[in-house]
Amino acid sequence: MVKSSRTKAADIVIALACVVLIFICVLPLINVFARSFSSSEALIKNEVGLWPKGFNLDAYKYVLGDAKYTWALAWTAILTVVCTFVSLFMTTIAAFPLTYDKLRGRKAINTFIVFTMYFNAGTIPMYLLLKDLGMLNKPTVLIIPYTLSVFNMIIMRGFMFGIPDSLRESAEMDGAGPIRTLVSIYLPLSTPVIATVALFYAVGRWNGFSDALMFMNVRQWFPIQLLLYNLINAISSIDTTTLEGFAPPGLSESLKAATITFATVPILLVYPWLQRYFIAGVTLGAEKG
Asked: Higher confidence at residue 209 or residue 279?
């Protein structure tokens, strides 16, 4: 099929717009990366652009040499892996039964589930509930309360709706129960949506800090993003950062940039591994259901 000149021109405009958007998204990251390798003098004078000035590794030496940063990164990685697997399990066992047309009360269940997307109790009732359950200031408070995302469950349910019913019926004729059908047929065919939902959960947990900010007061269990949040708030002056033990004098701005890089790069490395599943999972999950 030969494209018309108007279509080609539209494609060029779209491509240029995409390039501009990519630059808008990437340039701030490059600037932060450059600032993390720059000297304090260059940062104070605001001389750092897209390339480090006064190149040094002092900020990274401080971050990697401080146990609270390395432990926060390791703990966040552990937390992300655990939360992702638990959330995938909960999302799968919530989505799969809703693909059965013969499930009693399916419409009512769907209504109740979607209702929670628009209305919730709020932060204070959540805090009081977690307090009564004895979960405050414990690692489980960062895992259990937000285990299931209704949005991700709807995506997975929609994808599973697209799997032919004939496959399930064939398995049932061979004596397979719901669990066997899920494990043998639905999960292998749902790799794209599982990878997509896993990426959503992993990024959400890695970048999350509001739950730790509200429900966690034990520094040992602070995720890296909460540590970064406290660091950025504390770096209002060199005296404050020195007093709080965040940084030695003259290192605050480069340390802030290094910590941001330190907390951002690991999750960025996950995207290339899941990219090929991402679009398929989202679009197929939105086709039906």
From this structure: 209
Structure tokens at 3: 């494209």
Q: Which residue type does 80 have?
A: T
What band does 252 get if pLDDT is binned at 50, 70 and 90? low
Is the CB of residue 56 less than 8 Å from the CB of residue 214?
no
> Over the range 97-121, which residues count as b (16 or more CB within 10 Å of their CB) and which as e?
ebbeeeeeeeeeeeeebeeeeeeee
CA distances from 271 to 2, 138, 238 (A): 34, 30, 36
Name the token pair of 177. 């129960």
CB 210 within 8 A of CB 204: no
What backbone phi and psi angles, to 5 degrees, belong to 133?
Answer: -80, -5
Please name the residue that has the structure tokens 């995207």.
271
The yes/no answer on whether domain 58-285 falls in CATH 1.10.3720.10 is yes
How many angstroms separate the CA atoms of 14 and 9, rounded? 9
Residues 6+ apart with CB under 8 A from 183: none
Domain ranges of the chain: 5-44, 58-285
DSSP annotation of 4? P
In sequence order, the 6+-apart residues with CB closer than 8 A to the CB of 129 are 121
What's the CA gap between 108 and 112, in Å, rounded? 6
Helix boundaries (H) for 45-176:
58-65, 67-95, 106-118, 123-132, 150-161, 165-173
Indicate the residue type of 47: E
Q: How far apart are CA 23 and CA 48, in angstroms?
A: 18
What digits encode the pLDDT tens for the residues 157-194? 888 888 888 888 888 888 888 888 888 889 888 888 88
Q: Strand, coil or helix: what is 39?
A: coil
Q: pLDDT tens digits, residue range 90-100?
A: 999 999 998 88
